[in-house]
């Protein structure tokens, strides 16, 4: 299959939210335990050499929310992850002034509300959620939920929010080191890939 990088010459981003949504939707009929590997395999086919096909799950505590993350791709400008919890959680989405965040609900329900909203907005399997730059919401994973999440923008600007709960509350240094190590590994891999691609042009 042709790499999508070659289909978008001059595009500074590798991934498109519409493509990720299409891939997710094509596997929603599977049980979650089969769905996540199936989505991972198809993304690896569509984006050769970029997707981590056997991602490591690790805890994430941010904005009062505890969940787990499997990182499929990360660079200084993008990331693609699975995120969720089998028992539910909720808190603050974060307010990312320079990053757009796109999600597709794979399993369960996600509830959101914005400032001034008196009632929640409910998202279920297959629904898409777009958190625009500078926007923040309260959210809840109801009982249990999982999403495929794509962030686009200067990713390092998200790290203070993403790591603050761990540093100042849970003190889970194991998860902190895993997060930093895995993100750094992905960034180095994406940088090498970009240099290699440029050298062949």
Give me a quick take on this structure.
The protein has helices at 4-7, 17-25, 32-46, 159-170, 173-200, and strands at 57-62, 65-74, 78-85, 89-92, 100-113, 121-123, 128-131, 138-152.
Q: What ranges have pLDDT less than 50 throughout 5 or more consecutive residues?
A: 1-10, 196-201
* Rg from alpha-carbon coordinates: 17 Å
Average pLDDT number: 91
Biggest sheet overview:
8 strands, antiparallel
- Termini, distance in Å? 19 Å
Please work out how many helical segments DSSP would assign.
5
* Backbone structural class: alpha+beta
Q: What's the count of strands?
A: 8
Helix content: 25-40%
Description of the structure:
The protein is an alpha+beta fold and 201 residues long. 34% of the residues lie in helices and 32% in strands. It has helices at residues 4-7, 17-25, 32-46, 159-170, 173-200; strands at residues 57-62, 65-74, 78-85, 89-92, 100-113, 121-123, 128-131, 138-152. The chain starts with a helix and ends with a helix.
Per-chain topology:
Layout: H1 4-7, H2 17-25, H3 32-46, E1 57-62, E2 65-74, E3 78-85, E4 89-92, E5 100-113, E6 121-123, E7 128-131, E8 138-152, H4 159-170, H5 173-200
Antiparallel strand pairs: 1-2, 2-3, 3-8, 4-8, 5-6, 5-7, 5-8
Descriptive tags:
disordered N terminus; disordered C terminus; alpha+beta; eight-stranded antiparallel beta sheet; single chain; 8 strands; 34% helix; 201 residues
